[in-house]
Design a protein that fits this description.
This protein has 49 residues and is mostly helical. The chain is flat, with a radius of gyration of 13 Å. The mean pLDDT is 68.
Length: 49
């Protein structure tokens, strides 16, 4: 399950549209990493309850 989430978010992070500014790419990667970490924390937190 976690691997599937990681693959999906990696695919999202690597998706660069022709019209997008390449300088935004590091921000996209950082956003997806932060989202991944929050999802992992949220998932692990729900199992503890």
């Amino acid at each position: 399950m976690l691997a599937l989430i990681a693959r999906s978010l990696t695919k999202l992070a690597l998706e660069v549209h022709w019209t997008s500014n390449l300088s935004e790419f590091p921000l996209r990667v950082a956003f997806v990493r932060a989202l991944t970490e929050s999802e992992i924390i949220g998932i692990s937190g729900s199992f503890k309850a």
